[in-house]
# Entry
Amino acid sequence: RRWNTFTDHWLSALQGYPVFMFDPAHLGSHHRYNQSERDVTRLGRYGSGNDLAGYVLYPFRAIPVLARFRREHVRQLRQSDPRRYSAAMRQYITIAAIYALGLLLNPAKTALFVFVPHVFGLHFLVGSNYLQHAHATVGSRYNHSRNFTGVINTLLFNVGYHTAHHEWPDLHWSRLPDAHARLRDRIDVQLLEP
# Structure
């Protein structure tokens, strides 16, 4: 449990966004409702494009929706689960402490080496949802996601095998290539990107 807590804080610090939100936003909404009307991350609310402009703009459109979702989730946690609420607040404190210390020591370097990477990281994190689901088929068992099958998966813990990731969300990332191989013939070839 201690190592999991440490990892939660480490990842929160690296990405500038508290990892506790992955549970309600990613698993509780996106995996449960996968691009349908109830998915807070759904692409459909912003049109059906699949282009560079859509990718660049999607995070700017989605982040305000996710921020409202986050506020509501934190409010609910505060009322219903004080232990989890406290853990979530500690992740925010970790991020705030990094910024406070950085701004105290060197504001310019903090802006360049902490703030800018956090903004780009958050853009990529949210934007990856666009890349993985644009022009896929909402409601399809196997064609709801685009799958990136090349070497990039090694760098991104195999999340490019996105259909398998949705089919077995608890599967360890090292086992996703084998899971993808079992599904590959059921996935539209247009959703397999080398």
In short: The longest helix spans residues 52-80.
